[in-house]
UniProtKB/TrEMBL annotation:
Keywords: DNA-binding, Transcription, Transcription regulation. The keyword Cytoplasm does not apply. It holds the Pfam family TetR_C_46. This is TetR family transcriptional regulator. Residues 33-52 bind DNA. Residues 9-70 form the HTH tetR-type domain. It comes from the Bacteria.
Length: 227
């Protein structure tokens, strides 16, 4: 990569980081203006258009290029569903997931906050990423002997339920992590106790879901109630 290309890539990442920083202060992506972003990066507004067509394309690129890489790393690292044997498979997967959330809080905060946000482009990009992550987990479950009796359709539903459950923990975990890192007067022992309790509860929720699926029969019929 030439120095010019490298500088362009650095500026592109600076735009991504500016958006993440602004969203971490409580702003939604749809409320952020182009001028705010360029001011954060330290460039004139016209420089923005050398990298993106508009704010929507910036948000979409952020999701695909940055969050996409984060979710791909998560998919490749999770233990749930892998054919090879792991002791305490579910527990280790939950620990890994929450550790990744702690390591990249800005990414995960943006993902969960904007999943149902006001930007159509960002919302669609995030939902597509989550669907890809669900498909990856469903493929992993197909390799696990405990789930071979479940058909492809039900494994996909199980994976989607698992992904949605994982994502429901993010904000509570980030709140504990943020308090631990930024509040000088916090009782660290108490925070650690609360984190361990949350870790225990999350692990137990996942066990209930996946152990329950072990006893599920795909021949079971589902009837909708008459309206």
């Amino acid at each position: 990569m030439s120095s010019r290309e490298q500088k362009k890539l650095q500026t592109r990442h600076a735009f991504f980081n500016a958006v993440l920083d602004l969203c971490m202060t409580g702003q939604s992506f749809s409320s952020i203006s182009l001028r705010q972003v360029t001011r954060e990066v330290g460039v004139v507004p016209t420089a923005f258009y050398r990298h993106f067509d508009d704010m929507e394309s910036l948000g979409r690129a952020l999701v695909i290029e940055e969050l996409g890489g984060t979710l791909a790393t998560l998919s490749n690292s999770l233990h749930i569903g892998r054919k090879r044997s792991f002791e305490r498979q579910i527990a280790k997967s939950i620990q890994l997931f929450l550790h990744m959330v702690s390591e990249q809080p800005y990414y995960w905060q943006f993902l969960v906050s904007e999943r149902y946000g006001g930007s159509d482009a960002v919302r669609k990009a995030i939902n597509e990423l989550i669907k890809q992550h669900g498909r990856s987990l469903a493929d992993d479950l197909a390799l696990q002997p405990a789930f071979t009796h479940i058909n492809t359709y039900d494994r996909r539903l199980l994976a989607e339920a698992g992904v949605n459950m994982f994502f429901s923990w993010i904000i509570d975990w980030l709140e504990l992590t943020y308090t631990e890192d930024h509040d000088d007067e916090v009782d660290l022992a108490e925070i650690e106790q609360r984190k361990q309790l949350m870790l225990h509860n999350c692990t137990r929720q996942a066990q209930m879901l996946f152990y329950g699926a072990y006893n599920w029969k795909s021949t079971e019929e589902t009837h909708l109630s008459d309206q």
